[in-house]
Amino acid sequence: MTVASALHTSELVGRFSKPQGFGDATLRSPRTDSIELLGGIPDPEVLPVAELTAATERVLLRSGVPALQYSRTEGITELREWIAAREGVSADRIIVTNGGFHGLSLAIQALINPGDLVAVDNPIFPLFLRGLELATTNILPVPVGAAGLDVDALEGQLRAGVRPKALYTVPDFHNPTQGSLSRPDRQRLVELAAQYGFVLLADNPYRELYFGTESASYREFNDSENVIHINTFTKTLGPGLRLGWLVVPNWLRSDISALRSRQDSHSSTLIQSIVAEALTHEETLFDATLDKARATYRNRAQVLATALETETQGALDIELPNGGLFLWPKIVSDRIDPQKLSESARSHGVDYQQGAFFPSGPGTEAARHLRLSFGHVSEENLKEGARRIGLAFKDQG
Amino acid sequence: MTVASALHTSELVGRFSKPQGFGDATLRSPRTDSIELLGGIPDPEVLPVAELTAATERVLLRSGVPALQYSRTEGITELREWIAAREGVSADRIIVTNGGFHGLSLAIQALINPGDLVAVDNPIFPLFLRGLELATTNILPVPVGAAGLDVDALEGQLRAGVRPKALYTVPDFHNPTQGSLSRPDRQRLVELAAQYGFVLLADNPYRELYFGTESASYREFNDSENVIHINTFTKTLGPGLRLGWLVVPNWLRSDISALRSRQDSHSSTLIQSIVAEALTHEETLFDATLDKARATYRNRAQVLATALETETQGALDIELPNGGLFLWPKIVSDRIDPQKLSESARSHGVDYQQGAFFPSGPGTEAARHLRLSFGHVSEENLKEGARRIGLAFKDQG
Predict the structure, then answer these.
(1) Which ranges of B19-138 would DSSP assign to H, the alpha helix?
(2) Contact A225/B270, CB-based, under 8 Å?
(3) Which domains does chain B have, with CATH numbers?
């Protein structure tokens, strides 16, 4: 076999960082009975599996089997119209994607030049920073507090003359910190974007998974020409579909399409057809699915929080989230080393994400937190996971 | 609504050309009874629809419904192993993609820097040039003859000191010219790639659709560290799946994965699971599907060629292809204007791709050709389409 010594990859892939921490498989417990509280994974029991199966049969029975043929870059009409009605925008502003992360990657590539500054959540969903490497690594971390992105801090930077090209934030049930932006802060963000000429990337995968009252409005995002609003069926109908959407401002529609058409043409017509058929065949399906999801995840959050209170005996400061798929408790005592705690927990057979994986810059207490996912974990295993975390604290204590 | 006057797209999307000709919807006949001989579309009757439906039911019944969950960037194990066995390589060299075009786009972005020279087929599958705009527009057109890429011409350029970073060609049933590279030419291409330090992008979507004897070996491609071998289920199981694969050289595996993971994470787990289940549940399914496809397309090629002979009364020089989904007849008389012929054909209710859309540089006779697709068109419509093309010739005559 020829040794390809003269061959080189592109500068683009040469610039990619080596992933560390978050998502690193070497940080998983080798125990086969390990309880994994790692990812934002929906529970299979909550997904409308029977309805998706029945929808598949129906779409594959259609004359000419259009679900197996090419379709438009922007997505099939039935799906775009369903999403558009839900978002309250015209269907030509909807671009169907292969999930939320794909939407982010398209937005990044359509907007950001090498070296451009991008303002980002701090702490942040770490995979965004990996996706951002498609264009730049030049970031402005903006603090995230109990009510989401600190808009005052952002405004201070903007007034001081800092000019990001875009701002990335998760407005509802922030990953990892679980806060949600208030309605006035949404309005201010959109106004700042218009005033200072940047694009807000509003990444909203958890929006529908509220436990109490509906999350704050997203009208502000969809009404602005300065926002790309990113969403996905990942947390509601299943990550394995790889199906999401963008609400794009009018001035970006054709450029995002041109980019998409040069990368992978369009999302699977079959997947789009199955989901559109399931959602339109039975009008109540999506909301019924969401109701079930909300009840399940609200209950699991409560079960995990209660079990952790008991098992760690006050070693964690736990705030119940109002939605989403994560708990973000803080280690109370400074004497506990979070890294050692995590290793000990792993040896006891429970894996979670260390808070230290989430800062995008200095100034956070994220390293003192644990990110615990509960969406796909049974009550029994949540209790057992909490017990094992309790054992880990005892080891450190 | 805010006017986003200060906002700009990235230089990347700003460099994209405005698509003209190939794939331009304005060139379609407004007649509703128009016969479309435009795209390389498989016949729905040939696709294993019932088997895909049954496979979907089975995968969605599995405990925990893994088909609806996240999976690995490179693809699910069952599918990679099935493909790897067919390609005769180890499974870790297989990267599952969202179809052949997606494989090309990943290869382009992983290898090519802005301004890099890329050698390409002339005439060429025009969408490749659009995908190449993700990295460069600097191309070296290499003539394609009756036996595929002219390897002598390429070697002459290389000896003269031209140094492309990559070479793009369709080795089997070339699109649009229908030739196939001989086995010695495949070997020479791979040797030239190693000698001169470029990567061969071997784009092989039609490989399995041979009408007579099997197409020439692809062993040369898979044995070389200088080749990315691109394939897809698009022409065999359906374009709407958006499912294909790359056979990548070992030195590129991790970089292609890193790129893919930053763009859309992974191909739909559900689509991968359905296809893997269908292909492995019944071992003979894929070959039986191919046998049916080959017989159907061979017959349709013959029907269309015969009808054109009759209807155009010698105005076209028609060569029967040995595989694939296209006829590439040449207009015999220089007095016929191909553009006017196409317009006239459109007014008679038949649409095809003008040969003029396919050159990547000067020196071809492509503009004197018609590219006629026959895969998804019934015998009756092929005959009627030929009759309408005959009428168009009479108009010009």
Answers:
(1) 49-61, 77-87, 100-111, 126-132
(2) no
(3) 21-41+287-396 (3.90.1150.10), 49-284 (3.40.640.10)
Q: Do B9 and A249 touch (CB under 8 A)?
A: no
Nearest to A200 by CA among A176, A174, A233, A164: A164
Cα within 13 Å of Cα(A258), Cβ side: 23
CB B245 within 8 A of CB B212: no
Q: How far from B387 is each of A242, B35, B307, B372, B384, CA to CA, in Å?
A: 45, 11, 7, 14, 5
A1 chain-B contacts, CB cut-off 8 A: 223-225
Q: How far apart are CA B267 and CA B244, in angstroms?
A: 9
Looking at residue A205, the DSSP 8-state letter turns out to be T
Partners of A101 on chain B (C-beta within 8 Å) are 264-265
| ipTM (interface predicted TM) | 0.96
CB-side neighbour CA atoms (13 Å) of A358? 26
Smallest CA-to-CA distance from B88 within B254, B279, B222 is with B222
Q: Nearest CA to A198 among A140, A257, A269?
A: A140
Q: What is the pLDDT along chain B (397 residues), one digit of tens a residue?
A: 444 457 899 999 999 998 778 877 777 777 889 999 999 999 999 999 999 999 999 999 999 999 999 999 999 999 999 999 999 999 999 999 999 999 999 999 999 999 999 999 999 999 999 999 999 999 999 999 999 999 999 999 999 999 999 999 999 999 999 999 999 999 999 999 999 999 999 999 999 999 998 877 899 999 999 999 999 999 999 999 999 999 999 999 999 999 999 999 999 999 999 999 999 999 999 999 999 999 999 999 999 999 999 999 999 999 999 999 999 999 999 999 999 999 999 999 999 999 999 999 999 999 999 999 999 999 999 999 999 999 999 999 7
Classify residue A119 as left (phi > 0), alpha (psi -120 to 50) or beta.
Answer: beta
DSSP character at residue A223: T
Nearest residue on chain A to B376, judged by CA atoms? A64
